Amino acid sequence: MTSTLDIIIAGGGRVGFQTAEILADRGHDVTIIERDERIVSEIADEWIATVIQGDATNPDIIEQAGVERADAIAALTGESGLNLAVCLAAQELTPGIRTVARIDRASGETYTRFVDAVLFPERAGARVAANEILGSDVQTLADVTGSLDIMLVRVAEGAPAAGKTLSQVRFPDGTLIVSDSEGHRIAGPDTTLSAGDRYVVAVEPDVADEVMNLMRG
Fold first, then answer.
1. Torsion on CA atoms 54, 112, 66, 2, rounded to nearest 10
2. Same domain for 199 and 113?
3. Pair 113, 197 in one domain
4. What is the pLDDT of residues 4-26, one digit of tens each?
5. Using CA atoms, how far apart are residues 124 and 137, in angstroms rounded to an integer?
6. Residue 23 in 3-state DSSP?
7. Fewest CB atoms within 10 Å of the CB: 76, 118, 143, 215?
8. What angle do the packed helices 14-25 and 126-134 form, to 10 degrees?
């Protein structure tokens, strides 16, 4: 699997909570900042993430969430201006942190001048948010295949599957390597999984970690 990341999510509503669930399931450390006491209690009952009650635009609250060691922060509340303010505050406190903001369509892509990625409400499903937070090495096609994950996975240097053909790698049942690295052909037994190249992979959730271990190390 990919290395464990420290991730802060501002907003514990539907998108924020479901995104935290996905990231926690992938083995990442997640902290949620939420100002609504009722929502904080509900999240705490689920035991999926550290939860801090407070205003995520407050630098003291962001620091309490551990922004100095965080790899990414995603502001996923329903307020575009608040989300941008959270990302800008995090960048000021931790230069180089990856920032993701949920925004209104009216705000447009101009927000990308200030943050690394944006999410529009109609495409801000939790899987999309999780993929934007983690970056581009592993991308899941969101909300189109039910529980089955279809991912675009980059093979890491030194991963167990790197440099081997599919016939040489013992992927678990419930795994299908769909395309070759160019996306021009259906993958076959002689397809080589080259480090640095990306492949379309269909995988059942209960074997996803094993597949990521083989392809990402």
1. 130
2. no
3. no
4. 899 999 999 888 998 898 888 88
5. 19
6. helix
7. 143
8. 60
DSSP H helices in the chain = 14-25, 37-46, 59-64, 80-93, 126-134, 208-216
Three-class secondary structure of residue 81 per DSSP: helix
Does some domain include residue 144?
no
Q: Does 177 map to a domain?
A: yes
Q: What is the CATH number of the domain that holds 204?
A: 3.30.70.1450
Positive or negative, the Cα torsion across 128, 72, 28, 217?
positive
d(CA 183, CA 169): 20
Range of the domain at 123: 6-135
Is 0.70 surpassed by the pTM of this model?
no
Task: Mark whether 13 and 56 lie in a shared domain.
Answer: yes
Residues 198 and 111 occupy one common structural domain: no
Residues 158-171: pLDDT tens digits?
Answer: 999 999 999 999 99
